[in-house]
Amino acid sequence: MGLIHEIDYGTKPSAATKLVTLTIDGERVTVPEGTSVMRAATEAGTQIPKLCATDMLDSFGSCRLCLVEIEGRNGTPASCTTPVADGMVVHTQTGKLAKLRRGVMELYISDHPLDCLTCAANGDCELQDMAGAVGLREVRYGDAVETHTHQAKDNSNPYFQFDPSKCIVCSRCVRACAEVQGTFALTIEGMGFDSKVSPGIAEAMFDSECVSCGACVQACPTATLMETSVIERGQPEHSKITTCAYCGVGCSFKAEMRGEEVVRLVPYKDGKANHGHSCVKGRFAWGYATHRDRITRPMIRAKITDPWREVSWEEAIAHTASEFKRIQAEHGVGSIGGITSSRCTNEETFLVQKLIRAGFGNNNVDTCARVCHSPTGYGLKNTFGTSAGTQDFDSVEQADVILVIGANPTDGHPVFASRMKKRLREGAALIVVDPRRIDLVRTPHVQAQHHLALRPGTNVAIVNALAHTIVSEGLHDEAFIRERCDWEEFAEWAAFILQPENSPETVAELTGVPAAEIRAAARLYASAPNGAIYYGLGVTEHSQGSSTVIAIANLAMATGNIGRPGVGVNPLRGQNNVQGSCDMGSFPHEFPGYRHVSDDTARTIFEHEWGVPLSGDPGLRIPNMLDAAMDGTFLGLYIQGEDIAQSDPDTRHIVGGLTAMQCVVVQDLFLNETSNYAHVFLPGCTFLEKDGTFTNAERRIQRVRRVMAPKNGYADWQITQMLANAMGTPMHYAHPAEIMDEIARTTPTFAGVSFDALERLGSIQWPCNAKAPEGTPVMHVEGFVRGRGRFMISEYVATDEKTGPRFPLLLTTGRILSQYNVGAQTRRTANEAWHEEDLLEIHPHDAETRGVKDGDWIKLASRAGETSLRAKLTDRVAPGVVYTTFHHPVTQANVITTDYSDWATNCPEYKVTAVQVSLSNGPSDWQQAYLAHSRAARQIATAAE
Ligand code: SF4
Ligand code: SF4
Ligand code: SF4
Ligand code: FES
Asked: pTM for this one?
């Protein structure tokens, strides 16, 4: 076990298909046309010395270390900027080249502190390596020459240090920030000897535009930009490839370790979702895994007002099983259920739903996807035949027009956003449909052609109006529709969409978006050779979430934008494994693979595999479980990795339901808001402590690999297994690979997936079966999964949540880059430096009429409740709209969200709440009571420890 070294080819691969053959140091090498001489040499096994080149970036040609000699050409060209040519004869090692390279290195080293032995990069420094490679033995320039070695360090960023004294001004960091990340935070300031890397005029790194993605740190060949964790802990000595446990992009990382201590996470260049890029969360915010708040021993208590009592695993499991069995004996089979986690692995999620269906004997299983992407499942299954996005992320590189609806990729899905921004810089056009001016609307070198800043709650109306324009102006793709869809259903839908109420002119009044703008956006999307739609929770978390997903699917089908790279309908999934948790049968009406529980064929497969009869009746959804709890018919709940008391809407309703139950079991890393109402706490473990798989937003199944022993003693799947055995449902898996084998045996879309296959292929996008043994990057290529694409009527129905004199503003919610979901992980990292509290964004006009100034405490009230937080004045939101995040429990944003939900799936309407804003003195009564309760709960826990 050692460090995984990835070869740096110096320049990017060429996409050309034509091959050319050249000779390098006497060896014949055949590479695609357009390959650099440097890359061709590396592929042939010859490393040409280099400093300014790296294969993540375009060639730059500034350091002059990679010089070569080419027969028949004058001079010594730089190999990183010289493309190969057929018949070319290259010499990389000659006496002349050696002399030149030593001269270059001598100049670099003469302006470099000679503290290699105590430098944090010792052993992992390209400058050091190159000095060795060129055979530098002395530096002839003495102390008399002026140097940069006295410059002060910038320690403002919590995760990495900038030590300009070690900078060789190779510009790799500047280019990484521009080309890979697309933030353009760094520049080279000054000329000649005075040139230096600068994060802005007289700005510290932390105060600059930098978003701490780490691309510059990774690109830097010296110790100038260096992870604080490496400075503190030393160089890593072994590594494993694993998958980020934050968002649905699913970035691959090398977890670089010393023993069982993580030294750093380095994005993996071979990762198919991220291609070596990362964001601040995955790259740096992993410290929560060893945070002192981790609960590592099980605890139980008879009443939620009792102190927690630490117990052995045996006692905790036996107690839970006996309580669940008692409740079922007294109140019936359906009186208990469970919630799976979109943060846990596929294997763990599969086991929880198996325990519930086979062990509890009912289908009372639901998941946090209920509150985010359940409308995606419903809408895409009904129109296309499968509940998932249609493309891989690479597809965006072929999109000509990108339509982003209700998503904020730069904050929510940052690594994919960087890919998207790159495509936009290359010339693709952008349409943003969002009430808020998200960063993508205008960011360096990217400007949306259209920003349809619609009123929250009017998504269906605006997507219908786009479709109305397309059909009424004859911009639809009739050939595609006739060949791939049901023409009669299209005709029926077209008659509906052409009705005057769907015209941009009518819809303009509802949405606040001018008709001309809607028409122009529709023409742009319809006229694109490749039009791609990306959407997020701003689409799904509405009372008409499913209708909007259907309307989006209609739009893509009508324009023929399905079934090839560069197009498609792409839900950007929030949590790391939300796709996987849905795939694994986390909904009360579906077995793994989205087969209805009433489907006899599917049920027979599982009955045969599990050896027990299964119920064909859909079970309770989360809101129904809580209702039933209030009615006294649902009394036991097993929650794995989900904090419903903070993340689900209408907190009072959740708290009421949980309080009414007799046995609430929370399995999690930390005590959370839900555990305040729990009777059993089973400590869970982090992604670093277990094996398994996650499935990202592009249906890509990737390995999660254990790099340290579980601090709590067991991986989460083992805890579920112990509980199942105690409940009388035998489970004897020795490794998650065996669980995946069972998933493959029972789920046709996973038939070809195994840990061995993942080892071989790196990752697999489902469906993976006999027809597609290596997976399916783009879906619906030959035809739709359901046969013919189905146009469905998506009528706009206004939400019941209305503004009025008492609540005249519309609140919408979202996520910011540095924080994740309810913040349980990110709040326990240095990411707090960027976002210490949730703020309410309010337009200056709305603030002025209420006497609110920037930073004032305000009361935010809705029909459901009220909370207090501080105001941030900004024109990012339109007048009449306010916006907040919900990363901090104290904000209690969900006290004010209503219990309205999607008509098809019950996904809560987080994105539209009628509110009023007024000045306040501080936290509301409810917040204070809630905080007091939380504090008391924590004191009880601390006393137990
Ligand atoms: S961390 Fe990322 S955003 Fe910040 S300067 Fe480096 S590359 Fe740019
Ligand atoms: S900070 Fe590193 S990458 Fe940037 S110019 Fe200096 S040496 Fe090169
Ligand atoms: S983009 Fe998402 S998956 Fe990638 S590093 Fe960031 S949080 Fe992790
Ligand atoms: S590596 Fe080619 S010029 Fe720097």
From this structure: 0.94
